[in-house]
Amino acid sequence: MHEAVAAIAGCGVSPVVRIAANEGWMVKRALDSGAHGIIVPLIYTADDCVKLLKSAKFPPLGQRGFGSPFPMEKFSGQTSTEYLQQANDGLLTIIQIETKEALENIDAIAKTGVDCLFIGPFDLGNNIGHPYIDGKMDDELKAAIATIQRSAKEHNKSTGIYCTDGENARHFADQGFQMVSVAADMIALPAYLTSALTSAKGSYVHSALNMAKGAASKISGPYGR
After folding, report:
1. Cα gap 172→103, rounded to integer Å
2. Angle between helix 24-32 and helix 46-56 axes, rounded to 10 deg
3. Is 116 in contact with 81 (CB distance < 8 Å)?
4. 3-state SS of the chain?
């Protein structure tokens, strides 16, 4: 993780780390590596957000310890003092909304000090009994997503959503989502490499058809079929 954060920051892009769970040591490790923000899965309640913010913020807003020598260089060479002074306001806390409990508690969650509500539509659909299958969302899942976005707007929070391709991303960006994914590596890499291998074997037309079929196929899960 430390190497990836450094490489991304070195390209002038903000590194954001998705940690595995809402655990203080995971939050600290990601931020101390120099991440500009963290994505935290499986948030259920406002209390979960309070716990996260205590880990992510320096006193007096939280309990994060100060002393890692790594993050400053990921912010255009800030001094330790400059990093400390901007971190509480500048670092992003992004939480994943992907459970029935989070949906039911969305207003209380949105009132906390987190920065962005990021929707996981596949898990959210499963959790509310309306799975996101073959690229199709039931009206109940669409309504749940709209409820989350509406609550975020009411409490001045940004919104994001996991998307599987560019068309899906454009759809949600047009709806006002500020953070969207445009591809998953487990979809994009096999599709490209399959096409390249087919071309190398001498069938450019067949390769182009395969790419077109891959682009048009419906996604049944977060990483493809």
Report:
1. 19
2. 40
3. no
4. CHHHHHHHHHCCCCCEEECCCCCHHHHHHHHHCCCCEEEECCCCCHHHHHHHHHHHCCCCCCCCCCCCCCHHHHCCCCCHHHHHHHHHHHCEEEEEECCHHHHHCHHHHHCCCCCEEEECHHHHHHHCCCCCECCECCHHHHHHHHHHHHHHHHCCCEEEECCCCHHHHHHHHHCCCCEECCCCHHHHHHHHHHHHHHHHCCCHHHHHHHHHHHHHCCCCCCCCC
Closest CA to 33 of 63, 57, 64, 69: 69
CA distances from 141 to 99, 121, 159, 187 (A): 12, 8, 16, 23
* pLDDT per residue of the chain (225 residues) written in tens, 0 to 9: 889 999 999 999 999 999 999 999 999 999 999 999 999 999 999 999 999 999 999 999 999 999 888 888 898 888 999 999 999 999 999 999 999 999 999 999 999 999 999 999 999 999 999 999 988 999 999 999 999 999 999 999 999 999 988 999 999 999 999 999 998 888 888 888 988 888 888 765 555 556 555 555 556 666 665
CA angle 179, 180, 186 (to 5 degrees): 140
141-146: list long-range contacts, CB under 8 Å, 24+ apart.
144/103, 145/119, 145/121
